[in-house]
Amino acid sequence: MTHTMMKQFYITTLGCKVNQYDGQLIREQLIKAGYRESVQVPNKPGGVIVINTCTVTGRADQKCRNMIKRLVRNKGSAKVLVTGCFVEGDIEQLKKIEGVDFLVRMKDRASIPKLLDCRKEVSELEAVSSFEGRTRAFLKVQDGCNEFCAYCKVPYVRGRSKSKLLHHIVDEAKMIIANGYKELVVTGIHLGSYGHDLRDVVTLDQVVEAVAAIHGKFRIRISSMEPMNVDPALIKRLSQIDKLCPHFHLPLQSGDDAVLKLMGRRYAYAEYRKIAGAVKEYFTDAAISTDIIVGFPGETEECFKNSLKAVAQVGFCKVHVFPFSARAGTKAAGLTDVVPVKEITRRAEELDSIAEEAAYECKRSLVGKIKEVLVEDKRNGTCLAGFTDNYQRVKFQGGDELKNQFVKVKLTEAKEDFILGTLTH
């Protein structure tokens, strides 16, 4: 077998939707450079193992370290290349892991094929065309963040907010839709700041509107919007775009104003309630998911109780609970009013349990309704599975010809993690 035939890669991506998008860019770049993707970890000459890392929490760092060490143990004669946010955040720590051949900064990712094979010069890809093994495709329109919240490392590793030009976004969306994808997830690190850095200011709703104008039956989902960039007027404008899904991820982080101020979040809980109220008012069957940090330095029992109340008041369909862990280099790492680890764990468990009740209630409220479901391309056991426009997972019986299609399903029974349904014709 020739060296060229042996050129194969394996890629694993940890972390957020933006990272998944970046992983796809690397995948398409390597394919363009003559590499073949392998589902097994290659261990022969010409093989490369790519690990696209995340550093959003201390737990994410640990997960990345474990993943790198495991893949290094199995690499044989292949090369190991590590890139992503962890490389930006702590390259010195990664240099200590034996067996890593390449550490690639984000700004140098275009040179990956050249690094691996010095005879290749590949121009940088700035758009993706597909997402292997997914029904939904991510469309990255923005990167970076200017907020510097007290607990977060992301602005330090991703840099300042940068927006993609509108015509590039539309061209990329057309390419993805032409490849058969029926759901586009508009994604970015800090989507609400989209367009602020462009010469001709464009707003997020104008991006969604321009993508929605592309011909074809598909739907658009917004991955996440920070409350400091959202107001009821924006929600109202978005509600007029018929391809947009009525599901919004709005990170609250705390239901207590004093804690929000310590975190450097530029809104009060009352403002958040107004935004959530507008979502419920302007969208039918609207669903709101969120992130909440528990045990932030200075969070008293009373502050924590305000977060619990917020979950009940807003009626979240999903709450991602993050026990606070200090990140070196962030403002929060220097705060002294620390909550004991045991207490953080207790609060996280209590919030989880309240959040599960709210999520179940959200599912129960949909029982009896007929919803359009985009069927995933894999079966879930014997059932087909897919998501409603308001991001509820549904399982039902049906034939394989329905995969990656929109179907109408009557929702019959709420379970803990999904809703059962039956096909309607």
Quantity of strands, as a count: 18
Nearest-integer average pLDDT: 92
**Count of discrete alpha- or pi-helical segments spanning 4 or more residues:** 14
What is the approximate shape?
Answer: globular
Q: What is the radius of gyration computed over CA atoms, rounded to a whole number of angstroms?
A: 22 Å
- Beta percentage is 15-25%
Report low-confidence residues grouped into runs of 5 or more: 1-5
> What class would the helix/strand composition place it in?
alpha/beta
Distance between the termini: 53 Å
Largest sheet properties: 5 strands, parallel
Helix content: 25-40%
- How are strands sequenced across the largest beta sheet? 2-1-3-4-5
